[in-house]
Design goal:
Elements: E1 2-4, E2 17-20, E3 31-34, H1 37-45, H2 52-69, H3 73-84, H4 91-104, H5 109-147, E4 155-158, H6 176-183, E5 195-198
Antiparallel strand pairs: 1-2, 2-3, 4-5
Helix pairs in contact: 1-2, 2-3, 2-4, 2-5, 3-4, 4-5, 5-6
């Protein structure tokens, strides 16, 4: 989960990036503040941030942090190469970096930083909207399946990889339908971040 003032108003300085240090979980909840390109690259490479959407969002803000120091084409290219090398096979990472380059490449240097922060915030907002839509669509399926089962029989949903809210800017991917179904009162939740047990609520 990434929080910045540009995206949601959480970071008081208006430019740095706050993330949950997932390498400390589950034994300790800790956050870290990213202030440089190197911080963002390290957070991705060492798995302080995990989950495809979150990696992409972190990389987007990594470009912003790089441009704070140097808004030249050369610095942009170095930042993209450094961030891409942290997880070369990550699809969201490459997509986010391509989006950031497209947002700033042909702009005057004085305009690049604002444009970068704007696009990074849009990437974060888009991630939340997509995951909420996944949740809404999936929750309807869970409710439909549950309606066909005896009331004591749960609908079990198994997800693989990091699919909860920690993997995203917020809300989760494959677990989003379980979150939404739970919030709507049509199921209960149990299990780990990779397994959801959806049980029909008593009518």
């Amino acid at each position: 989960m990434v929080r910045t003032r540009a995206a949601s108003g959480w970071e008081a300085d208006g430019w740095s990036v706050g993330v949950i240090d997932q390498s400390q979980l589950p034994h300790r909840f800790a956050t870290i503040r990213l202030t440089t390109l190197e911080d963002a690259a390290r957070a991705i490479a060492t798995m302080q941030v995990r989950g495809a959407p979150l990696i992409g969002a972190t990389a987007a803000y990594g470009v912003c942090l790089a441009l704070r120091a140097d808004a030249s084409d050369e610095a942009l290219d170095r930042a993209v190469a450094k961030l891409m090398a942290t997880r070369p096979t990550a699809i969201n990472l490459k997509w986010a970096l391509d989006e950031m380059v497209g947002a700033v490449r042909n702009r005057p240097r004085d305009d690049r930083l604002a444009a970068a922060y704007r696009r990074a915030a849009e990437i974060c907002d888009q991630d939340v909207a997509i995951n909420q839509a996944i949740g809404g669509h999936g929750a309807r399926l869970i409710a439909a399946i549950a309606a066909k089962k005896p009331s004591a029989q749960p609908v079990q949903v198994l997800t693989h990889c990091n699919a909860g809210w920690l993997a995203t800017v917020d809300f989760g991917t494959a677990l989003a339908p379980i979150y939404v179904a739970h919030d709507r009162g049509c199921c209960s939740m149990s299990g780990s971040t990779r397994r959801g047990r959806a049980t029909r609520a008593p009518l």
